[in-house]
Amino acid sequence: MINKIGSNIIRFIFLAVFQIAILNNIDLGGFVLPFLYILFIILLPFETPKWLLLVSAFLIGITIDVFSNTIGLHAFSSVFIAFIRPSILHSFAPHDGYSTGSTPLINSYGLNWFLRYSALITIIHSLIFFYIEAFSFEFFFSTLWKAILSSAFTLILIILSRLLTVKRQ
Amino acid sequence: MYRLIRLIIKYHFFLLFVFLEIVSILLAINFNKHHNTVYLSSANSVVGSFNSKFNGISTYLNLKIKNEQLLNQNTDLLNKTISNYISNIKVFDNKHDSIYSQQYRYISGRIIQNYVYNKHNYLTIDKGIKNGVTPESGVACPSGIVGIVSKSSDNFSNVISLLNIDLSISAKIKKNNYFGSLNWNGEDIKFAKLKEIPFHVNLEIGDTIITSGYSLIFPENILIGTISSFDKVKGGDFYDITVELSTNFNSINNIYVINNLKKTEILNLTTNNDK
Q: In degrees rounded to 5, what are phi and psi of residue B160?
């Protein structure tokens, strides 16, 4: 248990620094912005207390916000995906349910399962982030396009980073 | 009371969710409305120094191009210095010049954080109140204008980028001095829209757009960009002009903050007009 808390705290710090120092500075035509930091929320263990889920999502969101001049936006979208995460996990659950003490990883329930679960969370997160940021439907299609491209990139990064770490486990 | 507590415990997940979302929205609204709150932003000294460390690395990678740009600009400026011209009439004394007085002061600085992904973009620069930067100063770079300072802490300042759909700048066409307002439409970071130019004005693709000098922020004649296309809007009175910005917002690094030293004097004068 303590081991799990420790590894999640390390993941929090690593993903936040990676997002702020590298991803925020990557130049992809000013249109695409990958949000790899939501991997932290995706990978929290199944038994995380629901309140802790929300609070840790808020913390990582506000950390990214402070460093990228978007106060409140990342926090809002992170808290939202943390809120819907239990219901998404519930609807994707295998027949015999999730085994106790496990984490939503690729090798626990397969690539297909992980892909569906993280894609849904990533798309919802990007849509909320970009629409709250634009704060109107005036730029409906450009915002939509931006959200789709960004979530695609985020998903690619998520899968790549999981595949890189899968062998170690 | 006991029932209330039981209700809160039962629905704690949803209540906490609503609470955190309200906190986020309030933060977002406060941050966008009141530009005086410095404590939770990149103008904060902790965040600022962190960002400037990372920026130090990326500045190093761009060193060669930047040096070239600086060199070009230096030669440009050297060409303009007074010592290069021989005055025909030796009447003016530079030290106690009562004919010319300095209206704009330039402070050089560096961008330590730059954002181009949103509709409302901001940048952070490494000069603040200690260096003489005040809110509502203009910011330009060697290739064109960048934005307007929104708030300053001791060592850092936050700049509303030209790539912010809420910012508009007074601009004019260089060849015939017709002026309008320029703002970004939130789509492509290379282009902005120039409005309020009436139909009878002759335009050509490639015409230079510069600052008008009618606002208190930018002096006249700072380059903004060139006309890349224009169109007559049916039923309107004004052209729809697309301007290709000369500033490449993806690669700016060195900037100048422009302080209008006569701003308070002009403001006093114009506020008296309103009465």
A: -75, 120
Residue B118 touches chain A, beta carbons under 8 Å = yes
Mean pLDDT of all residues in B114-143: 86
Residue A43 phi/psi, 5° resolution? -95, 5
Euclidean distance between CA atoms B209 and B223, whole angstroms:
6
Q: Are B260 and B238 in contact (CB under 8 A)?
A: no
User: Mutate which of B19, B21, B34 to disrupt the A interface (most A C-beta within 10 Å)?
Assistant: B21
Mean pLDDT in chain B? 80
The full length of chain A comes to 169
CB-based contact B51 A73, cutoff 8 Å? no
Q: Give me the average pLDDT of each 10-residue run along chain A (169 residues).
A: 82 90 75 86 87 92 86 90 90 77 75 88 92 76 87 90 70
Would you state the pLDDT for residue A60?
93
Task: For residue B153, give the 3-state DSSP assignment.
Answer: coil
How far is Cα A30 from Cα B188, in angstroms, rounded to an integer?
8
**B 10-49 residues with CB below 8 A of A?**
12-13, 16-17, 20-21, 23-31, 40-42, 44, 47
**Those residues with Cβ within 8 angstroms of residue B41's Cβ, 6 or more apart along the chain or in another chain:** A66, A69, A71, B31, B47, B151, B158
Q: Could you report the predicted ipTM of this complex, rounded to two decimals?
A: 0.79
CB-nearest partner of A80 from B21, B120, B186: B21
Instruction: Please classify residue B207 by burial: count the beta carbons closer than 10 Å to its beta carbon, then call 0-12 exposed, 13-18 middle and 19+ buried.
Output: middle
Who wins on pLDDT, B183 or B87?
A: B183
A21/B contact by beta carbon, under 8 A: yes
Q: pTM of the prediction?
A: 0.60
- Tell me how crowded residue A160 is: count the other CB atoms within 10 A of its CB: 11
